[in-house]
Design goal:
Elements lengths: L28 H9 L1 E2 L9 E3 L6 H7 L12 E2 L6 E19 L7 E8 L6 H6 L4 E4 L7 E4 L8 E11 L6 E2 L1 E10 L24 H9 L1
Antiparallel strand pairs: 1-10, 2-4, 3-9, 4-7, 4-8, 4-10, 5-6, 5-8
Length: 222
């Protein structure tokens, strides 16, 4: 059954089976360690992830929460509901200097095609995501391999949350995504109160002028 929150403006549902995926697990030692060094995972606020137009509730959060060793698993899976579009809101627990977005889909036509990124917004719906200029647009490939897509780092240097708008796919009525990840650098937000020490602005009458110095300072200030 469709989630009622996502079906008001959309009209059709689709189903399909995932294409079989074979992967060589023989030698991961060289690739796992470098990937984990910059992987943003524990720093994601999983409980507050939102996904619009998902067929099954909380699947968007679950594919993000899926840990690195399980990234090739077919379940859980995010599937769109009434059409091919998806809109995800992913908040972080601090500030992220985002380096790249990682996506795993399939070779099927249900694979996402156009991904639009909007950082630091918590007010997007499908209408706004369609009308607004994205910070970056990414063209994804129709593949079951992990896609590691770099972002323009200067535009994502202070990212508190990220909106991901899947605008279309490769021709199927529904979009399916099996894993979503992020790479970057993380900084903890300092929420402690800052104690500021300051001196009240000096009153010229409280200071004794040395003869001639005040006139010279005034002339230089002009």
């Amino acid at each position: 059954m469709s989630d009622p929150d996502h079906s008001c403006s959309l009209s059709h549902q689709h189903s399909e089976s995932i294409a079989n995926h074979s992967h060589d697990h023989g030698n991961h030692n060289d690739e796992v360690q470098p990937a984990l060094q910059t992987l943003i995972w524990k720093q994601i606020d999983f409980e507050n992830i939102r996904t619009l137009n998902e067929l099954e509730s909380d699947m968007g959060a679950k594919i993000v929460e899926k840990p690195w060793p399980l990234r090739l698993n077919a379940e859980p899976m995010l599937e769109s509901d009434a059409d091919e579009q998806l809109l995800m809101f992913v908040p972080f627990t601090g500030v992220v200097k985002l380096h790249s977005v990682l996506v795993r889909s399939s070779e099927h036509s249900s694979a996402p095609r156009t991904l639009k990124l909007f950082p630091n917004r918590d007010d997007l719906d499908f209408s706004a995501a369609t009308d607004l200029q994205p910070t970056q647009t990414i063209e994804l490939s129709q593949t079951s391999e992990i896609q590691d897509i770099p972002v323009k780092r200067t535009l994502f240097g202070n990212t508190y949350n990220l909106n991901l708008f899947i605008e279309d796919n490769f021709g199927h009525g529904a979009t399916r995504i099996y894993w979503l990840g992020f790479k970057g650098e993380f900084s903890v937000l300092n929420r402690e109160p800052v104690e500021v020490l300051y001196e009240k602005a000096a009153n010229p009458k409280d200071h004794t002028l040395i003869q001639g110095v005040g006139d010279v300072a005034s002339r230089h200030a002009m």
